[in-house]
Amino acid sequence: MSGIDLARYPNLWKRGSRYYVRVRVPTDLRLVEKREHIAVSLGTGDQREAVRRYRDVHGKIGLQFEAIRAELAGRDAITKALNDGRLEALSDVQVETLVRGWFDAREHLRKPPLGPGDEEERLRLLREDRARLDEMDPAAADVARNSADRLLADAGAPLIRRRIGGPRPAVDRTGRQYRYLLELVDRALRAENALAQQFVLRRPVAEVDPMFDPDAAPTVANGSQRKTVSELIEEYRADRERAHGQESTDRKYSHIFRALKEALGPDKPVREIGRADCRAVRDFLRAVPKNATKHYPDQSLAEASVAGARDGRPCLAPTTVASYMNNLSALLNWAVQEEWIERNPAKGLMEKGQPQVRRRGFSPSELKTLFAALAQFRETRPDRFWVPALALFSGARTGELCQLQTTDVIQVEGVWCIDLSEFDAEGRRVGDKALKTKSSERIVPIHPQLIAAGFRDYVTACAQAGQRRLFPALVAGSKGSYSHEFSKWFGRFRKTIGFDQPSLVHHSFRHGFRDACRMADIPEETARALGGWAAANQAARYGDRGMVPVLNRAVRKLKFGDFRLSEFGVGKG
Predict the structure, then answer these.
(1) Is residue 383 part of a domain?
(2) Average model confidence (pLDDT) for the chain?
(3) pTM summary value
(4) Which single residue of 36, 197, 358, 440 has CA 20 to 30 Å from 180?
């Protein structure tokens, strides 16, 4: 169809009457994904509809590849630890993964070849082996130990050469993880024996350990019965870091990890955590002073609470405590999913915290004062002018705007728009971009006042200069966000022009946008879609290019009294 450049949609192809997204599997992922290509039907033969559905499907395939890479990274972590001889560095789950892989590779031993009349002799030998295991014969213990050592050697552990006997893996054989490895190998050998007997007799003969039963539903190892708070934190951290990265995990969870260890103790069994323990964590947090690590860097949180009370420092705000408790609930939800505990004792414990400040949007007169002061930065620091201007007329979050790239300003059916997405035009995830929620991904038409003030000219100049990012002066902060330093600067700047009320911050633009939508009688679901507040079904409806004309009609209705952005620097339009 005219107007659609299919070169912008790689891997989009048509077979018969249907369109598909067909992506070659990267070579480095072939250890897990054996297919050379992944093909997903777009469920339509209409080219325009196929293009609309392309991004979501292409993005999901990319996420699938990321999940495979995370799995491979997990395998690599086990191999690296063993290559260094650091068996103790492995978590229980990683030890279980190691033994299960070894067990799976021995399937031929569970299905021994049988000739005519071999069944009776084979059963006799298997029963003798099982009797030795059941009687705790020292020779059986040697079998488990020798098997565990061969497992470690095959997995890449360095070897110690000995004058007497063969080489031995250079790992700590007195440590907890080696003992756990021996326990699992012994269980695997017993399961192997039972499965071999079942194969010979062609019927069940004994209950098989669920961890090694190929017919059982996947379960977490029985070792979860003795998991501790410290292990829960360690394994949840590792799991979340694979999905969201170390920075995000530290930022969101380091405080609750620390509080949980201090309030309950690192050796507290996870299965013994109850409602009273979660209340104890909540009460512990309520006594912690604000910025405890800054004011009392060398003290525990409990010590900081005592020192803060002595020094008269304010405690954590109720909303902050509620946020930490929500993180605790997420941690325990993960424990439920992993079958460490049967239910989440923190669920519903915290009521939604009451905000300490009621924010509002800027009035038209305040907008004039603000942008008259911001106009000085149009040439020297354009981010300080355009980020607030875009926030005012799009309702976008500060972080969404500060990370924009020049290619995120696009034209859809003749309408200039901002494409707020974590993916580029070819469907590849952009590493340094992040959105708050799934519904945050959206296309927002650019308000006529932004165009009249010269925003398109600014974008064109950036593209001609070869700038990848729209605001290159903004650098990522310690937490990876391009908005960190900008938000701090805006907070200082607004006070210099008399806006020192806590109700007026950069997020006030977002509040004002919502108010302007109401004043313009824009339907609620349309307003939610524009601002990225939409629920999943609404995001699916409004997030594609086909809805841009509807959204554009809504955006053009938005007004902020007699405020005109073009008065503070007219562009060429």
Answers:
(1) yes
(2) 83
(3) 0.50
(4) 197
